[in-house]
Every structure is written in structure tokens, then in C-alpha cells.
Amino acid sequence: MTTRSMPVPDSRRPAPALRTLPFLLPYVVYVLHTLEELPGFAAWTSEHFGPETTGTFAAYHIPLMLLVLACSWRAMAARRNGAWVVLVTAFQWQFAVNALFHVIGWIILGDYSPGAVTGAVVSVPAAIYYFWWLRDQARATTREIVLALGIGTIIAGLAIGFLFL
Questions:
Q1: pLDDT per residue as tens digits for the range 22-76
Q2: Gyration radius of the chain's alpha carbons
Q3: Within a domain: residue 58?
Q4: Those residues with Cβ within 8 angstroms of residue 13's Cβ, 6 or more apart along the chain or in another chain
Q5: Counted domains in the chain
Q6: Please, are residues 152 and 92 in contact by the beta-carbon 8 Å criterion?
Q7: In terms of residue numbers, what domain contains 52?
Q8: Fewest CB atoms within 10 A around its CB: which of 16, 58, 111, 139?
Q9: How confident is the model at residue 19 (pLDDT cuts 50, 70, 90)?
């Protein structure tokens, strides 16, 4: 009687779903960042830019969080390249630009900008890791990354501009 040996999985390689987990980073960053912003960002914005309420702030962030989560989920399913990867990458870049806005706003205005801490401590390191991972794992082409940087910069500009309404 002959026995066939079963292939032994390479324990050094993560499971397929784990290999795409970094696509969830923009969503995780967004949730953590919003939790820091929620208690005081509306008052800070009202003082320095335009009127804002905590209820309005929450009302537009909840659907945006769901959008980022949906895009992250679709990028995980796609695994590499394509529109979902570009969108998730754009969101990740937007959160890095947003971090700069918070930190620079805090410095210029001399008033703590709610979101500055998670911006500096979470968003920027997450973006550095995400972009390293994206290139290391060949999850996006150079063209897709450049497109994502452009889209993310536009999103960040619109988000900052929205504060003046």
C-alpha cells in the first residue's frame, strides 16, 4: 500500500485574507481619527473656520466611513490593481494629508486641533507602512499610485474646503 504525502503548508506565508489586511488600514485610521475628533472638532472648527455641530459632523462621517470600509473590502477581494485599490490608496493618502492639516493648524492657530494626535501617531505611520506594503507586494502599478495620490489630494482639499462652508 502506498501513501501519498500531503503538501505541508508554508507556515511563513500568511493566509490569503491576511495578506490583504493592509487594505483595511484606511478604514481603521479613519475610525480612530474620528473618535479623537468627535468630542471637540465641531467646536474647534466653529471657532476657526465655519459653523459646525457634533451631530452634523457625525452625520457626514458615518456614511463616509462605510464608503471607505466598502472600498477596502472590495480591494481585499481584488487583491491587486484596479479601481478599488486606487480608491483605498487615495483614502490612505488623504488621511496622511489630513494629518498634516491638523498638525499645521495646531501650530499656526496655537490651539489644539482635535485629530492632530491620531494624525501624527496613527495616520502618518499607517500611510508609510501602507505605501511600503503596496509597492513591496506589487499591489498597485506606479500609474495607479500616482492616480491615487492625485485623487487623495483632491479629496483632502475638498475636506478642508468643506470646513469653510
A1: 999 999 999 999 999 999 999 999 999 999 999 999 999 999 999 999 999 999 9
A2: 19
A3: yes
A4: 19
A5: 1
A6: yes
A7: 20-162
A8: 16
A9: confident
In a domain, 149, yes or no: yes
Among residues 98, 123, 112, the alpha carbon closest in space to that of 39 is found at: 112
Mapping DSSP onto H, E and C, the string for the chain reads CCCCCCCCCCCCCCCHHHHCHHHHHHHHHHHHHHHHHCCCHHHHHHHHCCCCCHHHHHHHHHHHHHHHHHHHHHHHHHCCCCHHHHHHHHHHHHHHHHHHHHHHHHHHHCCCCCCHHHHHHHHHHHHHHHHHHHHHCCCCCHHHHHHHHHHHHHHHHHHHHHCCC
Give the whole-angstrom CA distance, residue 149 versus residue 87: 10
In a domain, 81, yes or no: yes
